[in-house]
Amino acid sequence: LRAMRAETARLSDALDAADAAIAAKDVEIVSLGERLNRALADKVAELQRYRSAFFGRLREILGDRDDVRIAGDRFVFQAEVLFDAGSDALGPNGEAAIAALASGVTPLIGDIPPEFDWYLRVDGHTDDVPIQTERFASNWSLSTARALSVVNRLIAAGLPPERRAAAGFGEFRPAD
Predict the structure, then answer these.
(1) Helix or strand or coil: residue 2?
(2) How far is CA 52 from CA 9, 56, 78, 122, in A?
(3) Nearest alpha-carbon partner for 121 in 156, 153, 155, 165
(4) Which residues contact 137 (CB under 8 A, 6 or more apart)?
(5) Which pLDDT tens digits describe the chain residue by residue (176 residues)?
(6) pTM score, whole prediction
(7) 176 touches 76 (CB < 8 A)
(8) What are the b/e assignments for 44-63, b being 16+ CB within 10 Å?
(9) What gap in Å lies between CA 91 and CA 38, rounded to an integer?
(10) Residue 84 CB contacts under 8 Å (≥ 6 apart), including other chains
């Protein structure tokens, strides 16, 4: 009986110690979570400052233009400024508009801290009139080819290719 009581007391002490260790770990986890949340909030705020400065500077560079408008964190070009209907080839006005954008973005790239994993995504659009040609099986193909044409032009203008992305939306997000 004494041996059982001693063993019970030892197990009770071990259980109490384990409970105390768990409680301490819970406090540590909560503390780490709070520190992580603060660090993330600081990084988000820092990124927001760079993003705001970046787009503010581009607004100054691009000025009041009819062929491009800035909506939040997007530059919106009217498709008819860049491409003829059913084509992925940039026309002269499209070449000029993309060259102006590239000349505005290029000097700002060096101001972005290297730890920010940023990219410039080009979204290609079409109208919702179905297309099926030898070159383009669908509006999706055309919109993706348009996005790639712009990406390739930006790369040719000196923007780093690892910071580019192309997306086509086809008839699922018509330009009009």
Answers:
(1) helix
(2) 64, 6, 24, 19
(3) 165
(4) none
(5) 889 999 999 999 999 999 888 888 888 888 888 899 998 888 888 877 777 777 777 777 666 666 667 676 677 776 677 888 889 999 888 888 888 888 888 888 887 778 878 888 899 988 888 899 999 999 999 999 999 999 999 999 988 899 889 999 987 876 55
(6) 0.66
(7) no
(8) eeeeeeeeeebbeebeeebe
(9) 48
(10) 91
**How buried is 123 (Cβ within 10 angstroms: 0-12 exposed, 13-18 middle, 19+ buried)?**
middle
The full length of the chain comes to 176
Identify the CA nearest to 142 among candidates 173, 171, 165, 121.
Answer: 171
